[in-house]
Design goal:
This protein is of the alpha/beta class. The chain has six helices and five strands, in the order βαβαβαβαβαα. The C terminus is likely disordered.
């Protein structure tokens, strides 16, 4: 599994990696410090999961999320932020994020969020016809 961690603070990227490395020992991690690096990495190698900070220099995580979902609509994106869920979670999910995790609770919530995504992907893979029909019935449009 390939996980891309996008945050403008190196210490946060390192901390998120440390949370995940024990639970996903076979995972390969890549890092990006801004939105342009995220999009460049996606062109080179598609990760299985993207952890995307909301507040980054230059383009915000919301702007990057819109581009990511337009180009790679099936890529699971977990938005991470220090902002409270009540402020941003619904907005992130409406914009196409798969999950929202507050950085303050990442040590408890991040691994279960990724496992939920992996379980969902496994179920979709077992039923590709249903998945294809759902994608045709619910096209994702981001402006």
């Amino acid at each position: 599994m390939n996980i891309l961690i996008a945050d403008d603070h190196a210490n946060v990227r390192r901390g998120l990696r440390e949370i995940l490395v024990d639970a996903f020992s076979d995972a390969r991690f890549s890092e990006a410090s801004n939105g342009d690096e995220v999009l460049t990495y996606l062109v080179k190698s598609q990760p299985d999961v993207l952890l995307l900070d909301i507040n980054m220099p230059g383009r915000s995580g919301f702007e990057v999320l819109k581009d990511v979902k337009r180009i790679y609509p099936q890529l699971p994106v977990i938005m991470v932020s220090v902002q409270s869920e009540s402020q941003y979670a619904l907005r992130c999910l409406r914009a196409g994020a798969t999950e929202y995790v507050n950085k303050d609770s990442a040590s408890e919530e991040l691994v279960p969020a990724i496992r939920k995504i992996l379980d969902s992907d496994a179920k979709s893979a077992r039923n590709p016809i249903k998945n294809q029909v759902q994608n045709q019935m619910n096209p994702l449009t981001i402006s």
